[in-house]
TrEMBL record:
Residues 1-21 form the signal peptide. Residues 139-248 form the Phosphatidic acid phosphatase type 2/haloperoxidase domain. The keyword Signal applies. This is Phosphatase PAP2 family protein. InterPro entries: PAP2/HPO (IPR000326), PAP2/HPO_sf (IPR036938). It holds the Pfam family PAP2. Keywords: Signal. It comes from Flavivirga amylovorans. It comes from the Bacteria.
């Protein structure tokens, strides 16, 4: 419990630092709406954000399907090193600091994740700070969407976890066994959804790098723990980035909150292939 409280305070501090770095104030400004009215408004935007994310595939164009195909090819290529790569990392796990493994497990857990979100949103709501509220709505709506996607996918694919002694190609579709809920990584989905949502609020490159580094702790720790394959983590990160970007664009286009007129130094994420290498590249 003490660790969870400490983690929550760290997340809240990072959010507060972000806001001060961008010269935002914690004043109530001229907003005369009551806390209740703001909460209802934010809840509506969160629901609309979730709806937008789930319905976007019906509006995809040729380039979007091309991107989906490239992701599929990339995951297939990455899957060729799933077994060997996982076995190697599992052997290194005894040498990994316990604090790193514990932090990864805790931060990627739903309990800590949602407590942190609730604390951040509550702070923004009580102070009537639109920037914090907007960031929280982005996190909440995105995490709800990605959470449903990954929960359904885990059961539907029924992929075996590395630590069970099975190969990465072992599937038991629609399995209820926890040992066959590997694809995609839930810890990765939650941690990267929050990290990407918060990082998008920064203009400073190094601040973004710091947030993404913290967000990568959970995915990496799960690989060492033998809970997921490389492709589980990769798909979890891709889902998170795609959903957050979709919801963020929706909130921006609908002018639901006070976004800057022009966002500078935003990261454009692309799947990159070169020779025998594959990766997700962020262009600043």
């Amino acid at each position: 419990m003490a660790f969870q409280k400490g983690l929550f305070l760290i997340v809240l501090f990072l959010a507060s630092f972000k806001l001060s770095a961008q010269e935002l104030t914690l004043e109530t400004t001229k907003d005369t709406s009551s806390v209740g009215q703001l909460a209802v408004y934010d809840a509506k935007q969160a629901v609309l954000g979730v709806k937008h994310a789930f319905t976007r595939p019906f509006h995809w164009k040729k380039k979007d399907f091309a991107t989906l195909g490239a992701i599929g090819v990339g995951l297939f290529a990455l899957s060729t090193i799933d077994d060997e790569g996982s076995a190697f990392l599992i052997r290194q796990e005894p040498d990994v600091p316990n604090v790193f493994m514990e932090a990864g497990t805790r931060f990627g857990s739903p309990q800590v994740y949602f407590i942190a979100n609730a604390g951040l949103y509550g702070f923004g709501l009580l102070t009537k700070n639109e920037k914090i509220r907007k960031t929280s709505v982005l996190i909440i709506s995105s995490s709800f969407t990605t959470g449903l996607i990954q929960s359904f996918s885990k059961t539907a694919f029924g992929r075996a976890r590395p630590g069970n002694g099975y190969k990465s190609t072992e599937f038991r579709f629609w399995s209820n066994e926890p040992g066959f809920h590997s694809f995609p990584s839930g810890h990765t989905v939650l941690s990267m959804t929050m990290a990407h949502s918060i990082a998008k609020q920064f203009d400073n490159i190094w601040s973004k790098v710091t947030v993404y580094t913290l967000g990568s702790v959970a995915p990496i720790s799960r690989l060492f723990a033998g809970a997921h394959w490389f492709t589980d983590v990769a798909l979890g990160a891709i889902i998170s980035i795609a959903v957050v970007d979709s919801v963020d664009k929706f909130l921006f286009n609908t002018k639901a909150y006070d976004y800057p007129v022009k966002k500078k130094n935003r990261i454009s994420w692309k799947l990159n292939f070169s020779g025998n290498k594959i990766g997700v590249v962020g262009v600043f």
